[in-house]
Design a protein that fits this description.
Elements (H helix, E strand, L loop, with lengths): L19 E2 H8 L3 H10 L6 E2 L5 E3 L1 H16 L4 H8 L8 H9 L11 H15 L1
């Protein structure tokens, strides 16, 4: 995928095209190493080089893919399945949080307060009042 931006998340002094270990990439993204391994199972396009002893080395395009997955899942609210569909170009759907927000409201429309966070706060307040 040449249209992915080069990762700008590294401040380790290495060249942008240098190979990164799983530890370096995990630290740069703010995720644990097992999360990256799981993403490798769920996203066939994320395939780091594996050298002796199974050590993973992420190329610049792998790091950019991991950064994209991280953004879609952790900042934009996509499920892994939804993020994969977006990356593969099969989906123009909104993140999963949009569908959850419509289910959270009794009317099925916009949650109270007009956005997802307000809807969740309203639900939390109703649950706290019920206790």
């Amino acid at each position: 995928m040449s249209d992915l931006p080069q990762p700008t998340l590294f401040a380790d002094g290495k060249a942008p095209e240098a190979l990164r270990t799983i530890g370096e990439l995990a630290e740069a993204l703010g995720v644990r190493q097992h999360v990256l391994r799981y993403w490798e199972e769920q996203f066939p396009m994320l395939r780091p080089l594996k050298r002796g002893g199974g050590r993973r080395y992420y190329r610049a395009e792998d790091a950019a893919m991991a950064e994209t997955i991280n953004r879609l899942v952790h900042r934009e609210g996509y499920t892994l399945k939804g993020a994969r569909a977006v990356i593969e170009g099969k989906s123009d759907t909104a993140p999963a949080s949009s569908s959850v927000a419509s289910q959270a409201s009794p009317s099925g429309g916009t949650p109270p307060g007009g956005d997802f966070r307000s809807g969740l706060q309203a639900i939390r307040n109703r649950l706290a009042a019920a206790l």
